[in-house]
Amino acid sequence: MAQPARVIGPPAAADLHAAVSAWQDWLRDERRASAHTLAAYGRDFDHFLTFLADHLGGPAALSDLARLRVADFRAWLAHRTGTGIGRASNARALAAVRGFFRWAARRGLVDNAALAVLRTPKAPRPVPRPLQVDETEELLDVVPAFARDRWIARRDVAVLLLLYGCGLRIGEALSLRRSQAPLAGQDALVVTGKGRKQRHVPLLPVVIEAIAAYLAACPFHLPPEGPLFVG
Questions:
Q1: Contact criterion met (CB below 8 Å) for 118 and 70
Q2: Which distant-in-sequence residues (6+ apart) come within 8 Å of 220 by Cβ?
Q3: Which among 107, 143, 188, 216 has most CB atoms closer than 10 A?
Q4: Mean pLDDT, the chain, as a whole number?
Q5: Closest Cα partner for 97 from 77, 124, 81, 122?
Q6: How confident is the model over 134-190, as pLDDT tens digits?
């Protein structure tokens, strides 16, 4: 049996209370939203209704939602930002509000086109975290287990060592030609990066050994000006 809909705490007119409760029931029972999603959307909509009550000078009704302008939604997002809420959380909150408006529009409860022209806040890209030594060792141990052939395992290990041991970008590693395969005793490799700029990167013996092992196992003929890594 479905649980009763959660009662929204912030001030809102009776018709809006009923609509939000029905929307939450729909999310839970028909969309099968997780408890985490329901809780997050509930908090976001609570904040939205609390803001509207202050912004409009009283509890909002469905008719008030239909009259909201782009500037009103932007004011809500600006208020959230001003309280220290980050862009990722604001993007989720906007998704929750948009979800309610879409649900309400399909049922003829609210018709408001302002949200369609409102841009979603862009979440900042996290700075990549480099692998630790033990994580790299574990990765190199695991990779062969997922390869269907020995030569593929050796290829993948060689590429990973170029990335981790030499600092190559993935595009730089995959653009290497067969003629650029390092030889025993070689201490540097010339790679072409962004903007066609070339740079010298130091080579570790273990990287040279891994590439040699890959070449020895590779079943294909690799022409000098063809790609070093195939398949």
A1: yes
A2: 230, 231
A3: 143
A4: 85
A5: 77
A6: 777 766 666 666 677 889 988 998 998 898 888 888 888 988 999 999 888 888 888
Q: State which fold the 133-217 domain adopts.
A: hpI Integrase; Chain A (1.10.443)
Q: Using an 8 Å Cβ cutoff, are 206 and 164 in contact? A: no
Dihedral pair phi/psi, residue 187, rounded to 5°: -110, 0
d(CA 121, CA 113): 18
Any idea of the CA torsion for 208, 162, 144, 227, to the nearest 10 degrees? -80
Q: Is the domain covering 14-117 a CATH 3.30.70.1070 domain? A: no
Question: How many Cα atoms within 13 Å fall on the side-chain side of residue 98?
Answer: 15
Length of the chain: 231
Question: Structural domain boundaries of the chain?
Answer: 14-117, 133-217
Is residue 23 over pLDDT 90?
A: yes
Name residue 162's amino acid: L
With tokens 């030609």, the residue in question is 177
**Contact of 170 with 163, CB cutoff 8 Å:** yes
